[in-house]
């Protein structure tokens, strides 16, 4: 058994497996749904390669990762069974906004994979900004899946001013604001919440 404990080691194995299968970097990129530049960086042992994309490449090559410990069970570790209403209530109350933003993407991805918006009932958050964000994402996933949005989303009002969740914990510069607003799904923009679609649609 080979231990992959550095980005460089992962890159070597990925490159070797790709060549064994007679794949070009471009063909592997297309099969895995990533860019050729990502494959180049990955094979070179780039230390900041995105985990989700890396897993897609490994899956395409028939390579899997093995854990030395058992994977924990329970709803906390299964996105499709996670209580997102409770998760967001805890994160907002503890002001862990950076992780809350990551969980917005997790919620969208898990909903798309499950084939339905996972928040079928109102999360009943005290913070209207985050309620609007969750309503917008719920509407977005429902639209992507060709389903009607849960009725609770219709009761959530649009925010009075444009809001980017990222601004909860860091400043966002003008050019990035413009890019984010131009790439936000209509369902979120309608509620005056702005998140780039690429940050949500990972399923």
- Weakly predicted, low-confidence segments: none
Radius of gyration: 19 Å
Give the rounded overall mean pLDDT. 89
Q: Kindly estimate the percentage of residues that lie in beta strands according to DSSP.
A: under 5%
Please tell me what the overall shape is: elongated
The H-and-E topology, N to C, reads as HHHHHHHHH
Q: Please, how many helices?
A: 9
**Structural class determined from secondary elements:** mainly alpha
> In this structure, how is the largest beta sheet organized?
none
Distance between the termini: 31 Å
Number of strands: 0
Q: Summarize the amount of helix as a percent range.
A: 40-55%
Can you tell me about this structure?
The protein is built from 9 helices and no strands. It is mainly alpha-helical. The mean pLDDT is 89.
Write the layout of secondary structure elements.
Elements: H1 7-20, H2 25-32, H3 36-43, H4 51-60, H5 84-93, H6 97-114, H7 128-144, H8 174-182, H9 186-189
Helix pairs in contact: 2-3, 2-4, 5-6, 6-7
Give a short summary of the structure.
The protein is 48% helix and 0% strand.
Features:
203 residues, mainly alpha, 9 helices, elongated
